[in-house]
Amino acid sequence: MAGVNNSTVVPPKRALTDYPLIDSDPHVRRVFGYARPSDYAVGAGAAAASPLAFWLMERVSPSHVGRGGFSPVMRLATAIGLIGGVHVLYQRSCNRFHGFTENSREVEMDMREMVDKVKKGEPLYGASQVSPHLQGVAARNSRYANLFIQVIPWFNLVNHEHHGVDTAKYYQQAERELEAERLSKLSSS
Question: How confident is the model at residue 1, as a pLDDT?
Fold first, then answer.
């Protein structure tokens, strides 16, 4: 289509939340890296629920399938439980990135991580191996995807710059910290 400017990026829609938005499309590494110990505990509990429930049902009302009938089904129940547990963990962590639940710990972790990257001169959201066009496509496809993850498991696996937040705050904080470090060196010498 002639005359269309492909460099124009439609900003992501911002959800109205009680807590600050950290990232509207967090990379899967960040989601698991920022997960709280309570997320892992709840995820482990959810993972254990399926095999435990199946074992309990077998004890209350035995199926009498005979030798070798119980173990394959128990393995399936365990696999379903593990998938469910990872889903619960991922969902809880993503809800904090989006600001749907309390996220003060994650806001501090995000600020520290990004300011450190600014100081080192690294790209904020990592270097990407795909073209800018494909980065935009990936961002549009996976943004807020965790809200529908129970139907379509879709994760952000691409580093890109489309996260729905103003990154100027990281640069401003880095400047303040570098200036404070410079002043402390001057006063100590």
Answer: 42
Mean pLDDT (whole number) for 144-151:
87
Q: What is the DSSP string of 93-159?
A: HHHHHHTSS--HHHHHHHHHHHHHHHHHT--TT---SS-HHHHHHHHHHHTTGGGGTTTS---B-S-
Q: Is pLDDT at 43 greater than 50 in this prediction?
A: yes
pLDDT at residue 3 greater than cutoff 60: no
Helix (H) or strand (E) holding 166: none
List the chain domain ranges.
28-178
Q: Among 128, 130, 152, which Cα is nearest to 141's?
A: 152
Alpha-carbon distances, residue 81 vs 40, 76, 141, 145, 179 (angstroms):
14, 8, 27, 22, 51
Find the radius of gyration of the CA atoms of the chain.
Answer: 22
Distance (Å, rounded) from C-alpha 25 to C-alpha 122?
19
pLDDT of residue 44: 97
CA 84 to mean position of chain CA atoms: 16
Which residue, among 18, 145, 146, has the nearest Cα to 88 in the 3D structure? 146
Banded model confidence at residue 48, pLDDT cuts 50, 70, 90: very high
Q: Return mean pLDDT, the chain.
A: 89
